[in-house]
């Protein structure tokens, strides 16, 4: 084994020791209750997923069958779990979390939630976002798959989120001032007031029930569409959402009968510029400017459809 792998393993083990201590899982009974971490996890899976067989739980949680059998026997004696016949296979026995079990689990779940919230409150907002994004990235890498997302039409309340999220993102990552928030507010307000579904469209990117990106296509003139306000939250980058949003804009513009598409950006947005270039846009105009409290180069990109 190479020294590099040994060092990396030591880093991971060190993080595991730190984090298990941080969230208190080394205690014999979690959350000062009568239950271990594994026992609470089994109750949680039965509560959230519904009735499961012992084999299901062993596979999901990587538990030894003999250990799980003893754990379930203890639950049955306490009235926390009942064994029921499967509604789809009368030969299969499933585990059902009883009302008593749910009553036991509910305050433990609430306490866990409050402890994690307290941990987050000790950090400023940017660090909270960095922490959760890092945890999502760890989960993605170890699962070996890309988490799913969906693109959908905007719903009531989404436009306020778009303004808030974009304003916060560019203030956090580029230190832009209130002028940018004023700009995105004006763009969104104009879109809502003058929306024409035949020639304009907005997509919202959603992951795990949260808005993580958006983009707009609006009418520039009779033959030209304009791509506006593309953004992807830091927690969802690397999933191809930005490229997908750009592709949807191009597809819609072609189907709407536009002959070309243009967009405005600035030189500081290097990731977005790479996306535009990959999608076939060309830089057609640039000008030095002072915007959003920064010295920037204003750029116009365009392509034929």
TrEMBL record:
It holds the Pfam family Acetyltransf_1. Coiled coil: none annotated. It comes from the Bacteria. Gene3D superfamilies: 3.40.630.30, Winged helix-like DNA-binding domain superfamily/Winged helix DNA-binding domain. Residues 149-297 form the N-acetyltransferase domain. SUPFAM superfamilies: Acyl-CoA N-acyltransferases (Nat), Winged helix' DNA-binding domain. Residues 1-140 form the HTH marR-type domain. Keywords: Transferase. InterPro entries: Acyl_CoA_acyltransferase (IPR016181), GNAT_dom (IPR000182), HTH_MarR-typ (IPR000835), NAT_camello-type (IPR050769), WH-like_DNA-bd_sf (IPR036388), WH_DNA-bd_sf (IPR036390). CDD domains: NAT_SF. GO terms for molecular function: DNA-binding transcription factor activity; N-acetyltransferase activity. This is MarR family transcriptional regulator. It comes from Pseudomonas poae. The lineage of its organism: Bacteria, Pseudomonadati, Pseudomonadota, Gammaproteobacteria, Pseudomonadales.
């Amino acid at each position: 084994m190479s020294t590099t792998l040994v060092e990396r393993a030591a880093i991971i083990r060190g993080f595991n020791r730190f984090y298990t201590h941080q969230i208190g899982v080394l205690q014999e009974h979690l959350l000062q209750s009568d239950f271990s971490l594994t026992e609470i996890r089994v109750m949680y899976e039965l509560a959230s997923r519904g009735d499961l067989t012992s084999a299901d739980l062993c596979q999901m949680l990587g538990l030894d069958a003999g250990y799980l059998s003893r754990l379930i026997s203890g639950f049955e004696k306490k009235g926390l779990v009942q064994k029921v016949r499967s509604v789809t296979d009368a030969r299969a026995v499933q585990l059902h979390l009883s009302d008593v079990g749910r009553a036991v689990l509910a305050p433990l779940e609430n306490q866990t939630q409050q402890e994690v919230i307290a941990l987050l409150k000790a950090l400023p907002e940017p660090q909270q976002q960095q922490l959760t994004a890092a945890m999502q990235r760890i989960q993605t890498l170890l699962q070996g798959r890309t988490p799913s997302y969906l693109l959908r039409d905007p719903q009531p309340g989404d436009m306020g989120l778009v303004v808030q999220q974009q304003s916060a993102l560019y203030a956090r990552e580029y230190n832009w001032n209130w002028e940018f928030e004023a700009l995105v507010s004006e763009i969104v307000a104009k879109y809502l007031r003058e929306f024409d579904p035949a020639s304009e469209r907005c997509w919202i990117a959603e992951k795990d029930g949260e808005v993580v990106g958006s983009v707009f296509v609006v009418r520039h003139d009779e033959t030209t569409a304009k791509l506006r306000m593309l953004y992807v939250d830091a927690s969802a980058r690397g999933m191809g959402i930005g490229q997908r949003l750009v592709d949807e804009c191009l597809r819609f513009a072609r189907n709407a009968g536009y002959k070309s598409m243009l967009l405005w950006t600035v030189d500081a947005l290097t990731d977005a510029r790479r996306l535009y270039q990959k999608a076939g846009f060309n830089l057609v105009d640039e000008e030095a400017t002072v915007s959003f409290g920064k010295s920037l180069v204003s750029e116009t990109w365009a392509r034929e459809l």
